[in-house]
Design a protein that fits this description.
Blueprint: E1 4-12, H1 16-25, H2 31-35, H3 52-63, H4 70-76, H5 79-98, H6 103-110, E2 118-125, E3 130-138, H7 143-152, E4 157-164, E5 169-176, E6 179-186, H8 189-194, H9 201-212
Antiparallel strand pairs: 1-3, 1-4, 2-3, 4-5, 5-6
Helix pairs in contact: 4-5
């Protein structure tokens, strides 16, 4: 199980039209992918990508063969190695089209985290042309996603609050027209809670007391 990070992304639009268009495009079931979609060729790729030369050499040594290509192993190899060869072929195709061998490396570069948003919900503040999304992310904050989102919507202000009791972190930042500014940070998650973040001390006191026992 990953260390989960809690995120709250506030999106402040200049006009009602921008607000409506963003709301229509955002899919809570695939939030990052709604705006920065992973290329389809990367779906089903294997991570990490195998060292092809090493794989072929090892296969030949173990099976007393003289294959020179992945296609030969995919056609004539044993079942386990056929699968590895087929994945490697797909990874190479993905790299030729996108510059990335696998979905994992693409996600880290473009979203900043391994998976799309989890448990994503939204709140509409239509009178203020504002949308608030709350969601969890594995191990880290999807900072790259917010930075790119800001470039796609240069007139919109994106305010991010991100914290994790498991990672013992909390920081906040704003992005506008691709410009990033960290606005708040704490050395520990507990310090943020004591200062009133994430519902304040009463919300988390019991958990911290359990950790101290």
């Amino acid at each position: 199980m990953p260390n989960w990070v809690m995120n709250e992304l506030t999106c402040i639009f200049q006009t009602q039209e921008e607000y409506n268009a963003f709301k229509e495009k955002a899919n809570p079931e695939s939030f990052y992918n709604s705006f920065i979609p992973m290329p389809p060729v990367l779906e089903g790729t294997q991570s990490p990508h195998v060292d092809v030369d090493k794989f072929i050499t090892q296969y030949n040594e173990e099976n007393d063969t003289k294959y020179t290509t992945l296609e030969q192993i995919a056609s004539f190899g044993n079942d386990w190695n056929k699968v590895i060869a087929l994945h490697a072929i797909q990874n190479i195709k993905a790299f030729e089209e996108t510059g990335y061998h696998d979905w994992y490396s693409w996600n880290l570069t473009n979203w900043g985290v391994k998976w799309d948003a989890v448990r994503c919900t939204s709140k509409e503040l239509s009178d203020f042309n504002t949308l608030v999304y709350t969601f969890d992310s594995p191990w880290g904050t999807p900072e790259h996603f917010v930075r790119q989102l800001s470039s796609l919507y240069p007139d919109t202000t994106f305010e991010m609050v991100s914290g994790s009791i498991e990672n013992d972190t909390h920081y906040e930042f704003t992005c506008c027209d691709g410009n990033f500014e960290e606005t708040c940070s704490y050395e520990t998650f507990k310090e943020a809670v004591v200062d009133g973040k994430w519902g304040g001390w009463n919300e988390w006191a019991e958990m911290f007391q359990e950790d101290e026992v």
